[in-house]
Amino acid sequence: MPTTTAPRRTYDSTPRYTAASGRRTNATPAARPLSAADEWLTVDEVCSELKIGRRTFERWRTLGTAPRAVRLAGNGPLRIRRSWLDNWMEASA
């Protein structure tokens, strides 16, 4: 019984979309230098700046009144951007 093989797919390395159209390209973007507003802060750094305890910060998170925070790498440490903290402080003042 003869066997047939499917033709191999070829992939070219040219981008499917151009940057001019606003769509994704295969090129990786150049890394931007971090400014002070883009600095990642730990929860302890935020607590010391606000002069509150860690438990107070966690309570604020539960109540939904704490500044925006994300977990890095999905299940990693909780971090807050400096700009998010500044915006939160301006909004709550």
Layout of SSEs?
Blueprint: E1 40-42, H1 43-50, H2 54-63, E2 70-71, E3 78-81, H3 82-92
Antiparallel strand pairs: 1-3, 2-3
**Low-pLDDT segments:** none
Share of residues in strands: 5-15%
Summed up, the helix count is: 3
**Apparent shape:** elongated
Structural account:
- The chain is of the alpha+beta class and 93 residues long.
- It has a domain at 36-92.
- It is 31% helix and 10% strand.
- It is built from three helices and three strands.
- The protein has a three-stranded antiparallel sheet with strand order 1-3-2.
- A hairpin with a 6-residue loop joins strand 2 (70-71) and strand 3.
Structural features:
3-stranded antiparallel sheet; 93 residues
Quick overview of this protein structure:
The protein is an alpha+beta fold and 93 residues long. The protein has helices at 43-50, 54-63, 82-92, and strands at 40-42, 70-71, 78-81.
